[in-house]
User: Fold this.
Amino acid sequence: MNNVSKSLRFQIGIFGRTNVGKSSFLNMITGQKVSIVSPQPGTTTDVVEKVMEYRPVGPVVFLDTAGIDDSSRLSTERLQRTEAVFDRADVFAVITENGFWGEYEDWLREKALLKKVPFVIIVNKIDVYPLSDDFQKKLNAVTPHVMSCSCVDIDNSEKEAVKDTFGKILAACGEEGSPHKQTLVRDLFPKGGLAVLVVPVDAGAPKGRLIMPQVQTIREILDGDSAALVVKESEYGSVLPMLSGKPDIVICDSQVVQKVIAQTEQDVPCTTFSVLFARFKGDLTKAAGGAASINKLKKCDRVLIAEACTHHAAEDDIGRVKIPRWLRQHTGLDLQIDVCSGRDYPRDLEQYSLIIHCGACMLTRREMLSRCSEAAEKGVPITNYGLAISYFQGVFERVMEPFREL
Ligand SMILES: Nc1nc2c(ncn2[C@@H]2O[C@H](COP(=O)(O)OP(=O)(O)OP(=O)(O)O)[C@@H](O)[C@H]2O)c(=O)[nH]1
Ligand code: SF4
Ligand SMILES: [Mg+2]
Assistant:
């Protein structure tokens, strides 16, 4: 189960002021020393992640954060890291103590409301500060998900009871707050059909394995009781005549899309993994609009290329080299192009005229939707690498065709 990608796990953000017992709570419910605990406020300085199977929710990732009232020299940076978890969390679990409710907790509540994410309150340290009826009533008016506990000096059965209560609350939150579930490919062709996947195995491909978007697509096709035929682009043309009929859909890597389309009959739906992921992870309509805005760019406009994870950039890296080159060639403009990677996504998006995002396979759908909404709020079009490539190559309409009627 630990093989489940983090981006597909239910993400639980643990927030609160310093020293309320956030890390102690994480250690108690995971049964491991995941986070450092100490009486010194400001012990947790960065986000601590713990993946596990948590019943009855399934694969989850807990995100322990720095206290939001941290007033140390590094507090701004710590707060920024905690704020990045706001975009990721499928649930806000806020730890506090009896009688402790003020501007910080209200601020967390506002953030959860804004993100439309369920809000859980855990009143900790009840061994020293028992939960009063008045405080319980106050919290019940904030959220239906309130629990209390102590993280020290409790026996195994008490620990199990806390884990059980938290599990039930999380399961209820999962029902209430999961972002609209989006299929990847299953609704694009009939059950029992055949999808041909064209996958380049070149120097850019990882050794000995397929990449996650390809694996996820194959898995969803199999889950839908359909068949997937996986072929390299060099073999695609010779494999097609071996089939007794036409495939129901062809899905290829964006970098070979022109070649594949040239060999595919016009009435066979054909798209790319990138288009599938633009819809699965984010908002395909916005991403299509973003690609179409490439032609509206003007001289000296600033474009952001956003990679959601850090990886060693290859010599002819897609995000750092190829897309900037194709973008300049296509527009004929001297554009200013910035690249960001990992979770260091800039907040000052208004300076950009376009964002070209990677496929976001490492981000959750909630995180990517949040990036799409943030861009929309600031009036900046956003698209992804694959859509931009199809646009540069003049096959945009063709790869969008399978989605027209949906
Ligand atoms: N009495 C009592 N002490 C607790 C409880 N939970 C945590 N503590 C103590 O409170 C102190 C702070 O605990 P942490 O888990 O480090 O708190 P935190 O919220 O992660 O703190 P920062 O990382 O500094 O923001 C430690 O001394 C813990 O032993 C509890 O339920 N009861
Ligand atoms: S850069 Fe984006 S698409 Fe590529 S592996 Fe990282 S998260 Fe996935
Ligand atoms: Mg801590």
The first strand starts at residue 10 and ends at 16. The longest helix spans residues 156-177. The chain has three domains: 6-177, 193-275, 282-396.
